[in-house]
Amino acid sequence: MIKKNDVVTMGYTLKNSGGEVLDSADAKEPLNYLHGAKNIVPGLEEAIEGLAIGGKVDVTVPPEKGYGEDDPGLRLKIPRANFPADADIKPDMQFASEMDGHRQIFTVISVENDEINVDGNHPLAGQTLHFSVEILGVRGATEEELSHGHVHDGTHHH
Ligand code: ZN
Predict the structure, then answer these.
(1) Which of 51, 70, 83, 88 could form a disulfide with 126 if both were Cys (CB 3.0 to 4.6 A apart)?
(2) Blockwise average pLDDT, block size 10, the chain, 158 residues
(3) How far is the CA of 25 from the centre of ligand 1 (A)?
(4) Is 53 exposed, middle or buried (0-12, 13-18, 19+ CB in 10 A)?
């Protein structure tokens, strides 16, 4: 039964309300995450709590339990002069900025002569998310994983 501090291996399909597949993972390349560490959106984490290996669930996650409501205040025009002169600014580039005391990730939307249009919303902000999940594995996390707050599955270490 999945509980806080378990490492969960799962396959999933994520669709938007229009039925378009936005993301997926299967048994070949599953998602491993540390349960209860906010590694996945809250609405999905709540739905998975208590499932066992082989468990399947379809869950609809509203924006407030997903990637948040779309915030128009996070769409900004920034003078080109605020960026390093030698930086090659292109759409889809991301950068972090300090905002109201927290680190906010912005994505470059477009570049207009001397202004850069950026958006600090998550690309899935404001969207209702439809997940179909299958639990493929559950194990206890190691001490190291717990101290880092994420899974060490051999593909990364830091
Ligand atoms: Zn780590």
Answers:
(1) 70
(2) 97 97 96 95 97 97 96 94 91 88 91 94 95 98 95 73
(3) 21
(4) middle
Range of the domain at 115: 72-119
Distance 118 CA to ligand 1 centre (A): 30
Residues in the chain, overall count: 158
Same domain, 28 and 42: yes
For the chain, the distance separating the N- and C-terminal CA atoms, rounded to the nearest angstrom, is: 29
> Count of CB atoms within 10 A of residue 62's CB?
11
CA contacts within 13 A on the Cβ side of 108? 18
At 113, list the tokens: 């002569």
Q: Is residue 133 in a domain?
A: yes
Residues 107 and 129 in one domain: no
- Quick one: tokens of 48? 């998975």
Distant-in-sequence, close-in-space partners of 94: CB < 8 Å, separation ≥ 6: 105, 106, 107, 108
* 3-class secondary structure, 19: coil
- Cα of 38 vs centre of ligand 1, distance in Å, is 15
